[in-house]
TrEMBL record:
This is Pyruvate dehydrogenase E1 component subunit alpha. It catalyses: N(6)-[(R)-lipoyl]-L-lysyl-[protein] + pyruvate + H(+) = N(6)-[(R)-S(8)-acetyldihydrolipoyl]-L-lysyl-[protein] + CO2. Its EC number is 1.2.4.1. The pyruvate dehydrogenase complex catalyzes the overall conversion of pyruvate to acetyl-CoA and CO(2). It contains multiple copies of three enzymatic components: pyruvate dehydrogenase (E1), dihydrolipoamide acetyltransferase (E2) and lipoamide dehydrogenase (E3). The gene is LOC110804419. Its cofactor is thiamine diphosphate. It comes from Spinacia oleracea (Spinach). InterPro entries: DH_E1, PDH_E1_Alpha_Subunit, Pyrv_DH_E1_asu_subgrp-y, THDP-binding.
Length: 434
């Protein structure tokens, strides 16, 4: 990797040797080859301990991030007191994370009461990533998600009642009940979809980023929109990931690839499934910065996100960010979650990102208990209202069954009699009772 590569300033200020505080180191690639565990996983690394770690890699120009935040020089009124956020910003972050958590807990209840269909994948534990990135974006910026998508949609501003309604399969859902849990979409909010096939969203995000660049450079429009693509560690072993990193770097697209590394792909441990578990290193291989950050700390995520989003907006190209995180529930609500080691789960439960933010806000006198309780109450009511709204909403009309299946707007084409097939009353007979 070239040392001449443009590396954002925040990434310069940190290196492997920086002091990672009292906490256990998140990931030290030097230790990774000599120790047996990776990140917080109890699983063993595949790399054998007698493989020497190249000193060239350690002195790479693209470095891992850890105590990023503490190393920044105060430059505004906010940081004059060495705080990373204002009270207002802190409360926005807290509210968004609480919304994500409460919404998902409610989904679990509704799922087990039979209100939702198909698979439902919850985001508990990973909130700092959605909040840390998306709360920095404008409405015109785009977000692309995976099947674990409810919270990304909420952070981007899709109303909770429309997300819940979508989960209930109702006509008032953000996709009029046609998408369900894994396919959140909102044109208005530029949520370009949840995707059930892993990796499918990455090319869509790359295309959206290409659109921004095309508008700006070819059509000469005033466009500095960026796109953030979220996906998991398991997805990084798919070809689409590599193809898109290549294209995005080649064309300097305004995109941030955000890996939510929760250490597991269903029941497959990340360290057993990939040749080099440090995903962030794949950025420099394609000519873009690669960054590793504590995904359980919204303030650290936010600092990294700021730099990467600004870089994309300035037209300086893509960034790959690996956020170390953990999901607090099974892979989906159908997963009894018996594969992960209880010790590993217990260790991460002590690093709840919401509790960490709460501690920061109260210790720094940015908020008191009453402020935070008021937010929690507001969100409880909002989510209750979302459930009532979804429950009372009508089911989609049967005619919707035939929409969006083919490019033909009436669906299913024209029959031999010259009429639209869907107009034949026998068309859906015996198949759908809606
Ligand atoms: C193309 C494709 N192959 C396989 C699957 C089955 N599958 C569903 S989730 C999953 C694991 C993905 O793990 P990761 O990317 O780490 O995301 P996480 O669930 O941990 O958020 C797999 C392999 C799929 N959905 N799509
Ligand atoms: Mg994963």
């Amino acid at each position: 990797m070239s040392s001449a590569m443009a590396v954002p300033k925040i990434f310069h200020s940190i290196n492997y040797s920086c002091n990672r505080s009292k906490e256990k180191p998140l990931f030290d690639p030097v230790k990774a080859v000599t120790q047996t565990s990776f990140l917080g996983s109890v699983n063993k690394l595949r790399i054998s301990s007698n493989v020497p770690f190249s000193s060239a890699s350690v002195s790479s120009s693209v470095v891992a991030v850890s105590e990023v935040v503490k190393e920044r020089k105060p430059k505004s009124a906010v940081s004059a007191s060495n705080l990373l956020i204002t009270k207002e910003e802190g409360l926005v972050l807290y509210e968004d994370m609480i919304l994500g958590r409460v919404f998902e807990d409610m989904c679990a209840q509704m799922y087990y009461r039979g209100k939702m269909f198909g698979f439902v994948h919850l985001y508990n534990g990973q909130e700092a990533i959605s909040t840390g990135f998306i709360k920095l974006l404008t409405q015109k910026d785009s977000v692309v998600s995976t099947y674990r998508d409810h919270v990304h949609a909420l952070s981007k501003g899709v109303p909770a009642r429309n997300v819940m309604s979508e989960l209930f399969g109702k006509a008032t859902g953000c996709c009029r009940g046609q998408g369900g849990s894994m396919h959140m979409f909102s044109k208005e909010h530029n949520v370009l979809g949840g995707f059930a096939f892993i990796g499918e969203g990455i090319p869509v995000a790359t295309g959206a980023a290409f659109t921004s660049k095309y508008k700006r450079e070819v059509l000469k429009e005033n466009c500095d929109d960026v796109t953030v693509a979220f996906f998991g560690d398991g997805t990084c072993n798919n070809g689409q990931f590599f193809e898109c990193l290549n294209m995005a770097a080649l064309w300097k697209l305004p995109i941030i690839f955000v890996v939510e590394n929760n250490l597991w792909a269903i029941g497959m441990s990340h360290v057993r499934a990939t040749s080099d578990p440090a995903i962030w290193k794949k950025g420099p291989a394609f000519g873009m910065p690669g960054v590793h950050v504590d995904g359980m700390d919204v303030l650290k995520v936010r600092e990294v996100a700021k730099e990467a989003v600004d870089r994309a907006r300035r037209g300086e190209g893509p960034t790959l960010v690996e956020c170390e995180t953990y999901r607090f529930r099974g892979h989906s609500l159908a997963d009894p979650d018996e594969l992960r080691d209880p010790a590993e789960k217990a260790r991460y439960s002590t690093r709840d990102p919401i509790a960490a933010l709460k501690k920061y806000l109260t210790e720094n006198k940015l908020a008191n208990e009453a402020d935070l309780k008021a937010i929690e109450k507001k969100i409880d009511e909002l989510v209750e209202e979302a459930v009532e709204f979804a429950d009372e909403s009508p089911a989609p009309h049967r005619s919707q069954l035939l929409e969006n299946v083919f490019a033909d707007p009436k669906g299913f084409g024209i029959g031999p009699d010259g009429k639209y097939r869907c107009e034949d009353p026998k068309f859906t007979e015996g198949t759908a009772q809606v």
